[in-house]
Protein backbone atom coordinates (compact mmCIF):
# COMPACT_ATOMS: atom_id res chain seq x y z
CA UNK A 1 0.00 0.00 0.00
CA UNK A 2 1.13 3.55 -0.79
CA UNK A 3 0.31 6.82 0.96
CA UNK A 4 -0.58 10.13 -0.71
CA UNK A 5 -0.20 13.46 1.11
CA UNK A 6 -2.00 16.42 -0.42
CA UNK A 7 -1.75 20.09 0.43
CA UNK A 8 -5.18 21.71 0.04
CA UNK A 9 -5.15 25.42 -0.90
CA UNK A 10 -3.74 25.90 -4.39
CA UNK A 11 -3.15 22.16 -4.82
CA UNK A 12 -6.58 20.56 -4.50
CA UNK A 13 -8.22 23.96 -5.00
CA UNK A 14 -7.65 26.67 -7.57
CA UNK A 15 -7.26 29.33 -4.88
CA UNK A 16 -6.87 30.18 -1.21
CA UNK A 17 -9.86 29.05 0.86
CA UNK A 18 -8.88 30.56 4.21
CA UNK A 19 -9.43 34.22 3.27
CA UNK A 20 -12.91 33.72 1.74
CA UNK A 21 -13.93 31.76 4.85
CA UNK A 22 -12.66 34.48 7.19
CA UNK A 23 -14.48 37.16 5.18
CA UNK A 24 -17.72 35.18 5.36
CA UNK A 25 -17.39 34.25 9.05
CA UNK A 26 -16.29 37.47 10.72
CA UNK A 27 -19.00 40.08 11.33
CA UNK A 28 -18.60 43.24 9.24
CA UNK A 29 -17.98 45.55 12.21
CA UNK A 30 -15.21 43.31 13.53
CA UNK A 31 -13.76 43.01 10.03
CA UNK A 32 -13.42 46.79 9.74
CA UNK A 33 -11.72 47.09 13.13
CA UNK A 34 -9.51 44.11 12.32
CA UNK A 35 -8.34 45.65 9.04
CA UNK A 36 -7.25 48.78 10.88
CA UNK A 37 -5.45 46.81 13.59
CA UNK A 38 -3.80 44.47 11.08
CA UNK A 39 -2.82 47.06 8.46
CA UNK A 40 0.90 47.09 9.46
CA UNK A 41 0.97 43.27 9.45
CA UNK A 42 -0.85 43.09 6.10
CA UNK A 43 1.70 45.46 4.57
CA UNK A 44 4.55 43.43 6.10
CA UNK A 45 3.06 40.25 4.64
CA UNK A 46 2.59 41.76 1.18
CA UNK A 47 6.22 42.93 1.13
CA UNK A 48 7.51 39.53 2.25
CA UNK A 49 8.59 40.61 5.74
CA UNK A 50 5.88 38.62 7.56
CA UNK A 51 5.11 34.96 6.80
CA UNK A 52 1.72 33.65 5.71
CA UNK A 53 1.60 31.64 8.94
CA UNK A 54 2.09 34.75 11.09
CA UNK A 55 -0.59 36.78 9.32
CA UNK A 56 -3.06 33.86 9.48
CA UNK A 57 -2.56 33.55 13.23
CA UNK A 58 -3.04 37.29 13.76
CA UNK A 59 -6.21 37.27 11.66
CA UNK A 60 -7.60 34.34 13.66
CA UNK A 61 -6.81 36.03 16.97
CA UNK A 62 -8.38 39.37 16.09
CA UNK A 63 -11.21 37.98 14.01
CA UNK A 64 -12.33 34.87 15.88
CA UNK A 65 -11.42 35.32 19.55
CA UNK A 66 -14.60 34.96 21.62
CA UNK A 67 -16.53 33.48 18.68
CA UNK A 68 -18.84 30.48 19.23
CA UNK A 69 -17.20 27.22 18.12
CA UNK A 70 -20.64 25.76 17.30
CA UNK A 71 -21.51 28.76 15.14
CA UNK A 72 -18.15 28.60 13.34
CA UNK A 73 -18.60 24.88 12.64
CA UNK A 74 -21.96 25.64 11.02
CA UNK A 75 -20.33 28.34 8.89
CA UNK A 76 -17.56 25.87 8.06
CA UNK A 77 -20.03 23.27 6.78
CA UNK A 78 -21.66 25.93 4.61
CA UNK A 79 -18.23 26.99 3.28
CA UNK A 80 -17.41 23.35 2.46
CA UNK A 81 -20.72 22.77 0.67
CA UNK A 82 -21.06 26.08 -1.16
CA UNK A 83 -17.61 27.59 -1.72
CA UNK A 84 -15.23 24.64 -1.84
CA UNK A 85 -17.28 22.80 -4.43
CA UNK A 86 -16.77 25.76 -6.80
CA UNK A 87 -12.95 25.88 -6.51
CA UNK A 88 -11.88 22.21 -6.43
CA UNK A 89 -9.58 21.25 -9.32
CA UNK A 90 -10.98 18.44 -11.46
CA UNK A 91 -7.49 16.96 -11.91
CA UNK A 92 -6.99 16.92 -8.12
CA UNK A 93 -10.22 14.99 -7.57
CA UNK A 94 -9.23 12.57 -10.32
CA UNK A 95 -5.82 12.02 -8.72
CA UNK A 96 -7.34 11.51 -5.26
CA UNK A 97 -9.78 8.99 -6.74
CA UNK A 98 -6.91 7.24 -8.55
CA UNK A 99 -5.11 6.82 -5.22
CA UNK A 100 -8.27 5.57 -3.51
CA UNK A 101 -8.98 3.12 -6.34
CA UNK A 102 -5.36 1.89 -6.00
CA UNK A 103 -5.97 1.15 -2.31
CA UNK A 104 -3.71 3.99 -1.13
CA UNK A 105 -4.12 5.90 2.10
CA UNK A 106 -4.93 9.55 1.29
CA UNK A 107 -4.40 12.41 3.73
CA UNK A 108 -4.93 16.15 3.24
CA UNK A 109 -2.19 18.02 5.14
CA UNK A 110 -3.09 21.70 5.31
CA UNK A 111 -2.64 24.97 7.17
CA UNK A 112 -6.32 25.70 6.51
CA UNK A 113 -8.95 25.21 9.19
CA UNK A 114 -10.66 21.99 10.21
CA UNK A 115 -14.08 23.64 10.51
CA UNK A 116 -14.47 23.55 6.74
CA UNK A 117 -11.86 20.97 5.69
CA UNK A 118 -13.27 18.21 7.94
CA UNK A 119 -16.74 18.19 6.28
CA UNK A 120 -15.14 18.19 2.81
CA UNK A 121 -12.69 15.38 3.59
CA UNK A 122 -15.37 13.33 5.35
CA UNK A 123 -17.61 13.72 2.31
CA UNK A 124 -15.07 12.16 -0.05
CA UNK A 125 -13.70 9.66 2.46
CA UNK A 126 -10.15 10.83 3.06
CA UNK A 127 -8.16 11.69 6.18
CA UNK A 128 -7.20 15.15 7.39
CA UNK A 129 -4.31 16.77 9.25
CA UNK A 130 -4.73 20.54 9.54
CA UNK A 131 -4.84 23.64 11.71
CA UNK A 132 -7.45 23.54 14.46
CA UNK A 133 -8.74 26.40 16.58
CA UNK A 134 -8.33 26.29 20.33
CA UNK A 135 -11.44 26.68 22.48
CA UNK A 136 -12.65 26.78 26.06
CA UNK A 137 -16.06 25.20 26.05
CA UNK A 138 -17.92 26.70 23.11
CA UNK A 139 -15.77 29.86 22.98
CA UNK A 140 -12.74 30.21 20.71
CA UNK A 141 -9.56 31.55 22.35
CA UNK A 142 -8.31 33.11 19.12
CA UNK A 143 -5.32 30.78 19.08
CA UNK A 144 -4.45 27.61 17.23
CA UNK A 145 -4.57 24.27 19.02
CA UNK A 146 -1.01 22.90 18.58
CA UNK A 147 -0.01 25.77 16.25
CA UNK A 148 -0.30 26.39 12.52
CA UNK A 149 0.04 23.25 10.39
CA UNK A 150 2.56 24.57 7.88
CA UNK A 151 6.13 23.97 6.72
CA UNK A 152 8.04 21.51 8.89
CA UNK A 153 4.99 21.21 11.17
CA UNK A 154 3.19 19.36 8.37
CA UNK A 155 5.88 16.68 8.44
CA UNK A 156 5.93 16.51 12.24
CA UNK A 157 2.18 15.91 12.34
CA UNK A 158 2.25 13.32 9.58
CA UNK A 159 5.07 11.44 11.32
CA UNK A 160 3.24 11.56 14.67
CA UNK A 161 0.17 9.94 13.07
CA UNK A 162 1.68 7.63 10.47
CA UNK A 163 4.52 5.12 10.33
CA UNK A 164 5.78 6.12 6.89
CA UNK A 165 8.09 3.08 6.75
CA UNK A 166 4.99 0.90 6.57
CA UNK A 167 4.19 2.21 3.07
CA UNK A 168 5.76 1.07 -0.16
CA UNK A 169 5.76 4.54 -1.69
CA UNK A 170 5.07 8.08 -0.43
CA UNK A 171 3.42 10.53 -2.82
CA UNK A 172 3.23 14.25 -1.96
CA UNK A 173 1.49 17.14 -3.71
CA UNK A 174 2.04 20.83 -2.95
CA UNK A 175 2.20 24.26 -4.51
CA UNK A 176 4.10 26.72 -2.28
CA UNK A 177 7.20 27.07 -0.11
CA UNK A 178 5.05 26.01 2.86
CA UNK A 179 4.91 22.52 1.27
CA UNK A 180 8.65 22.03 0.67
CA UNK A 181 9.23 19.98 3.84
CA UNK A 182 6.29 17.69 2.96
CA UNK A 183 7.61 17.18 -0.56
CA UNK A 184 11.08 16.29 0.75
CA UNK A 185 9.80 13.19 2.56
CA UNK A 186 8.12 11.83 -0.58
CA UNK A 187 9.38 9.25 -3.05
CA UNK A 188 7.24 10.80 -5.78
CA UNK A 189 6.55 14.53 -5.50
CA UNK A 190 4.48 17.02 -7.44
CA UNK A 191 4.88 20.78 -7.19
CA UNK A 192 2.07 22.76 -8.84
CA UNK A 193 1.07 19.48 -10.50
CA UNK A 194 4.47 19.04 -12.18
CA UNK A 195 6.46 15.98 -11.16
CA UNK A 196 9.81 17.01 -9.66
TrEMBL record:
Domain of life: Bacteria
GO molecular function: hydrolase activity
UniProt keyword list: Hydrolase
UniProt-listed Gene3D superfamilies: HAD superfamily/HAD-like, SG protein - dephosphorylation function
Pfam families documented for this protein: HAD
Protein name per the record: Hydrolase
Species this chain originates from: Psychrobacter alimentarius
Amino acid sequence: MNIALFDFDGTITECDTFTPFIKAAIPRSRMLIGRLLLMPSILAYRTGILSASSIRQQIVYIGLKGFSKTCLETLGKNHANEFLSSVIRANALERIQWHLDSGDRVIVVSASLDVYLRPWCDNIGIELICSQLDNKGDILTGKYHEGDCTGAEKVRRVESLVDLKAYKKIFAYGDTKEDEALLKIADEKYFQWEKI
